[in-house]
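User: Hello! I'm new to structural biology and keep hearing that structure can be predicted from sequence alone. Could you demonstrate with Indole-diterpene biosynthesis protein PaxU? Please show me the input and the output so I can see what each looks like.

Assistant: Of course. The first part below is the input, the amino acid sequence of Indole-diterpene biosynthesis protein PaxU. The second part is the output, the predicted structure written as tokens.
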Amino acid sequence: MNAQSTSPGFLPIGNGVYLHRETSPDSPPTASSDDPNLILVFGWMGAKLPHLLKYTKVYEEMYPHATQILVQSNAEYFWSSDRTRTKNLLPAADVLETYTGTKSLEPPRILVHSFSNGGGLQMYTFGNLLRSRNQVLRPTISAMVIDSSPGLGSLSQALQAFSAAIPSILLRIPLQILIAILYTFGEIQHRLFGIQPLFARLIKALLSNDGPPRGGILPWMNESTPRLYVCSKTDELVPVEQILAHFEEAKGRGLNVKIDVYEDTPHVAHARQYPERYWGAVKDLWKSAVAGHPQKQ
């Protein structure tokens, strides 16, 4: 995809990875600002770029001096090797490591926004990639939005997610068969060899707090990193009970978590129906991250 087919300021830097520099580069530097200077957005599986750009556009308006990295999640993720998944995210890792190494930004301020299990899995892969590079990240002001996940990832949920992501019935049916085969193979691996399925790895990673240098699902996160779960009682793809259970377990482990439960919104559609409530919660989350950081106390 060329630059003209994305959005003003967004440039493709890899397979499904896009970079957006701050919209006001000529304005005074914001090193002393409390706003995030780097925003990572991990889209839901099959999300078209125009849909994701609606979210990044709001971030441009909220935090105009922030650099954004946008990562798409596509069906190929599920039958790709770990090596391929990691390779696709190398450009994002390069930008992150260069950006957080800038001496003028003390400390880095990183806001992470993940959508559904698809975005969560990309975030999980990204965290593993960063840890494998053994780069020591400086203390970071950070917060994470977990929208419409995590779910247990049953076969029916996986098939439903693929059906939503692939409108063509000619492509959908063979891919559903492939997903069913891969899902069954994963279950066999788990029972025979103890290899965790992808969704189980995501659920575990979102609960992790191994301390430095491993951190949480991303290496700079710890138990005090504010996390906001967003879910709905009418989500037909990821049942609200699964997200509530994960939230309660995270809280029981001492993680800094909040949850916002909507009554009537579809999967990953909360911001579309209730923008003021949704983005207000994101702003409040970020304010709590700044207030809770040692350098801001």
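User: So the tokens describe the shape?

Assistant: Right, they're a compact way of writing down the 3D structure. Reading them back into a model, for example: Residues 3-150+206-296 form a domain with the Rossmann fold fold (CATH 3.40.50.1820).
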